[in-house]
Amino acid sequence: MPTRAESAEAEKKRISSVLRRLNRHFPDPKCELDYQGTYQLLVAVILSAQCTDVRVNIVTPPLFAAFPDPPAMAKATQAQVEALVKSTGFFRNKAKNIIATSKRLVESFGGNVPANMEDLLSLPGVARKTANVVLGECFGIAEGVVVDTHVNRLSNLLSLTKSQDPKRIEKDLMALLPKKRWIKFAHQLILHGRRTCIARRPKCDACFLLEHCPGNSA
Question: Catalytic annotation on 96?
Answer without folding.
Answer: no
